[in-house]
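DM from R.C. (forwarded with permission)

"hey, sorry to bug you on a friday — could you get me a structure for this? deadline for the figure draft is monday and I only need the backbone to look sensible"
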Amino acid sequence: MRKLLVSMILVALPAMIFGQTLAIGDTADFIPSTDRHLPMGIRSAGMGGAGIACSEDYSALFYNPANLAYIYRFEMAGALQYDALSYEGALDGAAAGTGSDSYVKLQNLGGVIPVPTSRGGMAFGIGFTRTNSFDRRIRAQATGSDGLLYDIDESVKGGLGKFSLGGGVQVAPSMALGASLDIYSGGERYSWFNDVRNPGGTDWPDSVERKIFSDDITNSYCGVGARFGMTLVPNKIVQIGAYISTPTSIIIDEEGIQRFDSLTTGWETYQEDYNIVESFEILLPWRFGAGLALRPTDWLLFAGDAEYVDWRQTEYDEPAWILNQNRLMDDSYRATLRWSAGGEATIPMASLKLRGGFSQEPIAYLGDGDNRSRNTISGGLGYLAGDLVSLDLAMRFSDWDVEGTRLDGGYSLTSIWLGMSYRF
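My reply, with the result:
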């Protein structure tokens, strides 16, 4: 009987302790690819992420492929990204630990191939960019409101990127159209460790002294989508861009292990392991973006972007047992308007371009707290070495909060981008 009781506790306790790892009640699961969207180019990153109307390099392939039509030289470019993530954990409202992690990853790599035309412009682009970051961590060591001692470590590493092939063409002196095919790929490594000790005087069975819960789960992502863009250039000062991204089908192959251990006062150990092998298909909704760029002089640029997505339209296509999550999307997600604004000043005598900007990303998932946003301040510079090579730097500073059932997290992120482009 005692062994049966312990086994029942082991199965039930993870859902009762921390709601951020399991969908409970009327809340759908968190879907990582709906969050942590990244700027798609080092120049745009320095300007707050604005690029729909003003992308003038290979990043036009990812922002608005119509802008490729205004690139008349061959280009090759790439960038690395360094992230320093700091976190603060709170258990049952009390401070429970701080820490930091760092990551270095390829951010983007690509090129542009212009095509000679009798009039106007046409070019094709091919490349890769990271679109979402999944990296985060939280640690907590504290006594909970239930009197139990907790040692918690939750870690997520990985992200989502896309390989794109597209082109843009001027259909009129003041208008260009473009399209791209996007193949998504990525991965995620999730680990969860929770060591719970009973100091005595709690509601646990007297024989149980310690429980350990540990998950190690790997997800592989692949998918496909498309983007259609348009650019209007009514005069030398104003440039307007817009795009529509089709719903993106993402297939997630998941495998891993969940393990539960229990230690009694008699030093008897009870252990249960659950192997996970599953495949999911998720359909992400339509995206609509628009941007405006103003060039009052040859050396000054102002730009702003906005993207609207109704994340309540996210849905699972398979397997059959998870389709009941779709009815929870309306109450678990919201429509968001993500926006960014920035500028660039050129100093010809020094061959420098100075950049700065701000962006706000409303967090679509409501299961970790309502009305949350990720605010980002950014800056950067570009140095033109001769007429062929550009060296670029961008820095971004973000912060946001996550509210769990009992475990809360506060995050701050510093990102540094280093890149180089070559035009010939």
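R.C.: lifesaver. The longest strand covers residues 208-232.
me: no worries. The helical segments are 2-17, 42-46, 60-63, 329-332.
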